[in-house]
Fold:
Amino acid sequence: MNAQLKPLPVDLTELCIALESEGDGFDWYLDTETGDTVLVNAEYEPDEYGGLKVEEIEGNPQRFRRVPVVDERQAFRDMEAFALAQQDERLKESLLIALEAPRPMRRFRAVLGWLPPVQHQWHAFRHQALVARACAWLEQLGLQPE
Structure:
């Protein structure tokens, strides 16, 4: 562990969900004091987070750091890296063709839908990529997940 980084009990799986979230109205924040990942949306209930109001979260950027969303280009690059890593040439070709088609992400998932074991490999690959990004972001903040 890097001695300069502050240890923080962060749930990396939850942080990965925040990194992957899409759509307007879903703002995720990391509480740099507790390690909690807080979702601020239309259904936000302050009582679930110790009475913290949205204004207190959004108004305290030192404590509550907005979680950056992995953009669509990065998600596409992850799919491409996964496709290129495949040993089965037919599978690799199918995935790469899917990524060149209209609505590439949907087509990529459709190819995987026919191959449950490969689909599980993709989810593990994607999770590892997200964990690496989460840890890199935490390090930028001077934090180390416990």
Observations:
- The radius of gyration is 18 Å.
- The first strand starts at residue 6 and ends at 8.
- The chain has two domains: 6-68, 72-135.
